[in-house]
Amino acid sequence: DVFIPMNSYGDPRGFAFVTCAQEDLEAVMAATDGAELMGRTLSVNPPLKAGEKEERKKTAAPRRQKLYVGNLSFYTTEETLTEVFE
């Protein structure tokens, strides 16, 4: 599952959220953090809650986990990002 937030003009904001299986989380982050996409180096991390700055404490692990993907090209589509995470 890929979600790319858009600004008020309908243009991508330069980041996305990708959902993956909890058991694949570390492997997905290791394989994609620092990867190149459309001439940009991806930044892949677990997302923080709005306004949160510190590392979160671990709670019961859900079956799927969202990842924050930053430094995206404004021309990135869900299809091109999905290809990176397959």
Main sheet: strand order: 1-2-6-5
Poorly predicted runs: none
Which bin fits the share of residues in helices? 10-25%
SS-derived structural category: alpha+beta
Q: What is the CA-atom radius of gyration, in angstroms?
A: 13 Å
Q: How many beta-strand elements?
A: 6
* Alpha carbon gap, first and last residue: 11 Å
Largest sheet: 4 strands, antiparallel
Kindly report the average pLDDT value. 84
The coarse silhouette is globular
Percent in strands: 25-35%
| Count of individual helical segments | 2
The H/E string reads: EEHEEEEH
Q: Would you mind describing this structure in some detail?
A:
The strands form two sheets. This protein has a four-stranded antiparallel β-sheet. The chain has a two-stranded antiparallel ribbon with strand order 3-4. With 86 residues, it is of the alpha+beta class. The N and C termini lie close together (11 Å). The chain is 19% helix and 26% strand. The longest helix is centred in the N-terminal third of the chain and has 8 residues, at 25-32. The protein is built from two helices and six strands, in the order ββαββββα.
